[in-house]
Write a structure and sequence with these properties.
119 residues, mainly beta, Immunoglobulin-like, 5-stranded mixed beta sheet, 4-stranded mixed beta sheet, 11 strands, 0% helix, binds copper (II) ion, metal-binding
Length: 119
């Protein structure tokens, strides 16, 4: 599934618009695609998982392959083929950079990292 931005009308905050962003996890390699996403407050970002067992957890710029305390973590999603029906969605609460990585094995060291709202 390719990434896209779909504006939807939000019932929150009157006439505000919220967008939903999509990130593919491990499709065709140890990558998030896209690996950089720009989102605004109220938007959602949904991760879609591909074989075989990836996850997504929040990290930090200084330690990109280590989970931060109280950060989001999807856990590992097992997939035998194609795109999993299991997704993981976060809601953007501010526009600070959100660094994330795949905690599986050495995937992060192999480059499986990404950022929402890069500085
Ligand atoms: Cu992975």
């Amino acid at each position: 599934m390719k990434s896209y931005t779909l504006p939807i009308v939000s019932s929150l905050l009157g006439s505000a618009y919220a967008a939903s962003h999509s990130i593919d996890v491990g499709e065709g390699g140890l990558v998030f695609s896209p690996n950089s996403t720009t989102a605004t407050v109220g938007d959602t970002v949904t991760f879609h998982f591909y074989p075989r067992a990836h996850g997504v957890a929040r990290s930090s710029y200084s330690k990109p392959c280590a989970a931060i305390d109280n950060g989001f973590n999807s856990g590992f999603v097992q997939v035998t083929s194609g795109e999993s029906a299991t997704t993981f969605t976060i809601t953007i609460n501010n526009t600070d950079p959100i660094w994330y990585y795949c905690p599986q094995g050495d995937h992060c060291q192999a480059g499986m990292v990404g950022v929402i709202n890069p500085p």
